[in-house]
Amino acid sequence: MGIHKPKFYAVRAGRDKGVFSSWEECRKAIYGFSGAVYRSFPTLEEAQAWFKGETLSDPLKAEDDSLRDDRTEYDVYTDGSYVNGQYAWAYAFVKDGKVHYEDADVGKNPAAATMRNVAGEIAAALYAVKKASQLGVKIRILHDYAGIAFWATGEWKAKNEFTQAYAKLMNQYRGIYSFEKVKAHSGNEFNDYVDMKAKSALGIRD
């Protein structure tokens, strides 16, 4: 049997902030918190230093694959589009400045189209977390519509069947995603890319 390596978890942004000695404590502090910022460290000293804004070493460079279970591995850009009663969605998993996984399609729920492009935004986030679950990775969802995070975290009350279903499904995937809002049409390469992918699914050409 291998020797168990103790790990410590520092949370700079979360429901609770501080340094924790177990993943369970860390998870409670970050689950469902939009924009959670946290890392794991092999020593208490490194965790405390990072929490205070100091750096003794870079844990992300450590050759320890066990760190993979509690850090973001991909930034995932999501977007939706709408035209003539149909909506579409798209996502792109980005790492080291490259797209590693991507998908886009026309929405399958005609009734959801009443929410126009928001239906596509919701679908994109859902398909992204399902993909992350299949891959066994953690992701940060970069979105340009606030409700994508706020319905999932409960900061906005889900008032119709579609947002309620979204909140329920996202709750099932808690722990594998965090959120970060980006400004729409701001020249961000990957945000523009998924916007283009969603439009292309509907046959829209800029």
TrEMBL record:
Q: Which cofactor does it need?
A: Mg(2+)
Annotated Ribonuclease H1 N-terminal domain residues: 7-50
Q: Which InterPro entries match?
A: Ribosomal_bL9/RNase_H1_N, RNase_H1_N, RNase_H1_N_sf, RNaseH-like_sf, RNaseH_domain, RNaseH_sf
Q: Which GO terms describe its molecular function?
A: metal ion binding; nucleic acid binding; RNA-DNA hybrid ribonuclease activity
- Where does the RNase H type-1 domain start and stop, copy by copy? 73-201
CDD domains for this protein: RNase_HI_bacteria_like
Question: Any idea of its EC number?
Answer: 3.1.26.4
Alphabetized UniProt keyword annotations: Endonuclease, Hydrolase, Magnesium, Metal-binding, Nuclease
Matching entries from Pfam families are given as: Cauli_VI, RNase_H
Known role: Endonuclease that specifically degrades the RNA of RNA-DNA hybrids.
Family label: Belongs to the RNase H family.
Its name, as the record gives it, is Ribonuclease H
